[in-house]
Amino acid sequence: MSPKAVILLSGGLDSTTTLAIARQEGYVPYALSFRYGQRHEGEIAAARAVAAALGVAEHVVADIDLRVFGGSALTSDLAVPKDRAEEEIGAGIPVTYVPARNAIFLSFGMAWAEVLGAQDLFIGVNAVDYSGYPDCRPEFLEAFENMAHLATRAGIEGHRLRIHAPLMSLSKAQIIARGLDLGVDYRLTRTCYEPAADGSACGHCDACQLRLKGFADLGLADPAPYSVLPPA
Amino acid sequence: MSPKAVILLSGGLDSTTTLAIARQEGYVPYALSFRYGQRHEGEIAAARAVAAALGVAEHVVADIDLRVFGGSALTSDLAVPKDRAEEEIGAGIPVTYVPARNAIFLSFGMAWAEVLGAQDLFIGVNAVDYSGYPDCRPEFLEAFENMAHLATRAGIEGHRLRIHAPLMSLSKAQIIARGLDLGVDYRLTRTCYEPAADGSACGHCDACQLRLKGFADLGLADPAPYSVLPPA
User: Fold this and answer.
1) Domain range holding B106?
2) Predicted confidence (pLDDT) per residue in A115-161, tens digit
3) Residue A210 falls inside a structural domain
4) Do the bridges between strand B28-35 and strand B162-164 make them parallel or antiparallel, or are there none, so unpaired?
5) Which one of A136, B70, B98, B113 is least enclosed by Cβ atoms within 10 Å?
6) What does the pLDDT read at residue B32?
C-alpha cells in the first residue's frame, strides 16, 4: 500500500509543484489549505482547482484566524510593496511575512498526519523565500521535525514524522521546469499577494516578480492571467 | 517598563494558576484562548471570567477549527472516559488527547509574542498531564523553544523566545496551594471535559478526578460547582 502524505497546499506555484512531486514519489496525497484571513479568497479557489486537477485523496481547508494578531501586510491593512528590485526583495524580512505562519501551518499538518497515520509532511518552501522569511530556512524545518517527534503519539510510539521540502535548494526557474516535466498546469496556480477582483495577478508585488522572472529565465511566458502587462 | 508575556489561558485550574504566577513574576500578561471545536463553549466563558478577575492587558480568543481532523474525544463524538482508576489515568495516551494541540497553541502564542515584541510565553502543562500527553513533556517544550528561535523574526534578530512552564514539576495539590497563595478564585475556573448544560462539572472524567484529588490532598473542598456529588 502506498504511504499517505500531507501536503501543505496554498494553490501557488511552489506548493502545487510540491504536490506534483509528492505524487510522483509514490505518496497518496492529502492536501491541506488554510483560510487564514488573507486578503484573497482566490487562494482557496486556486488550491481547490489544483487539488482537483492533480488528484488528491482528500482536501481539507482549515479555518484559522491570524488576523487577531495583525503584524503582516498579508493579514492586515499594511501596504504590499510593489516593483522592488531583486536585491531589495532578498534583503531583510518583508512586511508580507506572517509571524510564525509556517510553524502554525506545519503544526496543523502534523495534527492531520497523526490522525491519518501518515509519517510524511510536504511543504513548498524554497531558497528564494528563504532569503527573507525566517521560517523558510532548512534549520527551521529540522528543528520543527525534532519538535514534532516529541509532540505526538507517533513520536512516543517510535515513528518519526519526516518533513519534506523538495524545493528547498531549487531556483524558481528550476521549480517551474520540474513542474512542467510533471505535467503541472500553472494557469491554475495563484501566486500574487494582491490580485484583482477577477483573480488576475498584479505583476508587481514581490511574489509576482519572482514568478515572472522564473518563467523568463526559462524563456517562457507565464500562462497565468495578469491584470496589466507585466514588465518585460 | 515591565516585560510583556503571552499566557495560554483555557480557563482551567492549571492555566489560571499559570497566569497568576506570570503576574506575580512581574510580567504584563496578554492572555490567549482558543475556540477549537471543543464541546463546551463554557471554557471560553471561564477564560474570560478569569482574565477579568486577575487582570490582563489584553485577552484574545483565536478561532481554530481542529474538528476538521477528528481523532480526539474532545473534538469529535468519541466517548469521554469516566471513573477511571488513578493508575489507569496515568497509563498510555488518553482518547481526550487532541493531536498536536500544544504545538498548535504554542505556535499561535509565538505569533502573538512576535507581534507584541514579547519574549516570554507561559503554558500551564504539568507533570500529571505529562504522564499521558506527549506534548506536555519538558523535552517537547525545549524542542519547541529551539524551533521558535529559528522560526521568527526575533530569532533572526538575536532575541530568544522563552517558554515558561512553571507548573511542570508540581503536583495538582501543589498547584492549587500556589494559586490560593496568589489569591486565585478557583470557583471561576473550569476543568471538566464534559460539563452539564449549566456549566457544572461532571466529577467523573479524568480531569475532574485529578482536580478533586488535588483539593482533597490539601484537605479542601473544590469551590467549583458539580452537577452530582463527587465521589468521596
Assistant:
1) 4-217
2) 888 999 999 998 665 556 777 788 899 999 999 988 876 555 566 88
3) yes
4) unpaired
5) B70
6) 96
Give the Cα separation of A46 and A14 in Å (integer).
Answer: 13
Task: Pick B65's closest partner by Cβ from A63, A134, A156.
Answer: A63
| Helix, strand, or coil (residue B226) | strand
At A158 the pLDDT is 61
Cβ burial of A133 (10 Å; 0-12, 13-18, 19+) is buried
Q: Do residue B99 and residue A93 have CB atoms under 8 angstroms apart?
A: no
Distance of CA B212 to the CA centre of its chain: 17
Q: How confident is the model at residue B193 (pLDDT cuts 50, 70, 90)?
A: confident
> Is residue A114 in some structural domain?
yes
Instruction: Give the minimum alpha-carbon distance from B72 to chain A in angstroms, rounded to a whole number.
Output: 9
Which residues, in sequence order, are bridge partners of residue A201? Answer: A226
Interface-testing mutation among B68, B72, B97, B141, with chain A (most A C-beta atoms within 10 A): B68
What pLDDT score does B136 carry? 78
Cβ-defined contact of A69 to B63 (cutoff 8 Å)? no
CA of B217 vs chain A CAs: smallest distance (Å): 30
Q: What CATH number is given to the structural domain containing A76? A: 3.40.50.620
* Sheet strands (E) in chain A: 4-8, 28-35, 58-63, 120-122, 162-164
Report how far Cα B222 is from the mean position of its chain's Cα atoms. 18
Best residue of A72, A141, A144 to probe chain B, by most B CBs closer than 10 Å: A144
Interaxial angle between packed helices A13-24 and A172-181, expressed in degrees from 0 to 180 and rounded to the nearest 10: 50
Stronger pLDDT, A137 or B109, i.e. the higher one: B109
d(CA B20, CA A67) in angstroms, rounded, equals 27
pTM of the model: 0.86
Total count of domains within chain A: 1
Cell numbers given for A167: 524545493
Reported ipTM: the value is 0.84
Per DSSP, the three-state class of B190 is coil
Report yes or no on B21 lying in a domain: yes
A224 within domain boundaries: no
Residue of A nearest to B93 (CA): A153
A227 to chain B, minimum CA–CA distance in Å? 33
* Number of other residues whose CB lies within 10 A of the CB of residue A69: 23
